Amino acid sequence: MNLGSSIRRRRGKGRKAGGEPASAPPRGPAALLTPRVLGAALGVALLGLAVGWGVATRMLFPAPDALTGLVEVPDVQGRTLDGVEQALAETGLELGAVEQFHHPALDSGTVVGQAPLPGQLLLPGAPIRVAVSVGPDRRPIPTVSRLAATQAVDLLRATGFQVTVDSVESDRPRGRIVAVDPAEGSALALPADVHLTVSLGPPSVVMPVMLGLSEVVARDSLEALGLVVGDVEEVFRFGRDQGRVVGQEPPGGTEMERGSAVRLVVGRRGGD
């Protein structure tokens, strides 16, 4: 065999047909990522995850035991305290703190609220807090008849009453209290209404014209209207003005309260 041809054969080994070199086997880290190796790594990872979950759920954060022996909270609203204690004793619960407050519609001793609410689950012996009505808040009507109307209304409202006001003509000064209904001192369950009657003052009259009337007639006319003759001034007059009203204060047409005084000027002869 020729030595030169033998050398050429060795050099040509490892090339593909057509003269291309054959692919060399992979080397380095990539050579380790075979399907078998990948499968083994995935199995190890899953095993580690399972072990970690087991440790976390059983040792670090164990699940609570099954809820057993719990009792349901009964609805005790609308009962008396004796009825509440009986109902709670039947379910294995206990009566806790009792709070009291005024209720405008429920009688004293009626339970109007509870905590925890009905239907919740609790361990036996757990306390149930309740709120009990002591009935409506009752307050006496304060004395307001000596006050002005605005002050009386403010005081009654501050005490908790609802106030209505009516006005009438009265001999009492304007703005003063004439009547209180119900009477002062009456104890009422709140909310309650109190009616005030307030004076508009004495009835008013229109001052008539007195000029030319005799003094006697003028006096009688004023008294009939509820007015009072006050000062009477005499002035010198001749003839027909003697003994008659020649001046008045206030003038005719003035609106006046009953009981008001009127000043008259009457004519007189000199020397009389």
CATH fold type of the domain at 204-268: Trypsin Inhibitor V, Chain A
Beta strand %: 25-35%
- Give the number of DSSP strands: 15
Unreliable residue stretches: 1-10, 12-20
Taking the sheet with the most strands, its summary is: 3 strands, mixed
The averaged pLDDT comes out at 82
From the coordinates shown, what is the CATH architecture of the domain at 204-268? 2-Layer Sandwich
Helix-strand layout with pairing:
Blueprint: H1 3-12, H2 35-60, E1 71-72, H3 81-91, E2 94-101, E3 111-115, E4 121-122, E5 127-133, E6 138-140, H4 149-159, E7 162-168, E8 177-181, E9 187-189, E10 193-199, E11 204-206, H5 215-224, E12 228-236, E13 245-249, E14 255-257, E15 261-268
Parallel strand pairs: 2-5, 7-10, 12-15
Antiparallel strand pairs: 1-4, 3-5, 6-9, 8-10, 11-14, 13-15
Write a structural description.
The chain has 272 residues and is α/β, with parallel strands linked by helices. Among the domains are: 63 residues, Trypsin Inhibitor V, Chain A; 62 residues, Trypsin Inhibitor V, Chain A (2-Layer Sandwich), CATH 3.30.10; 65 residues, Trypsin Inhibitor V, Chain A (2-Layer Sandwich). 25% of the residues lie in helices and 28% in strands. It is built from five helices and 15 strands. A three-stranded mixed sheet has the order 2-5-3, covered by helices on one side. The chain starts with a helix and ends with a strand. The relative contact order is 0.08.
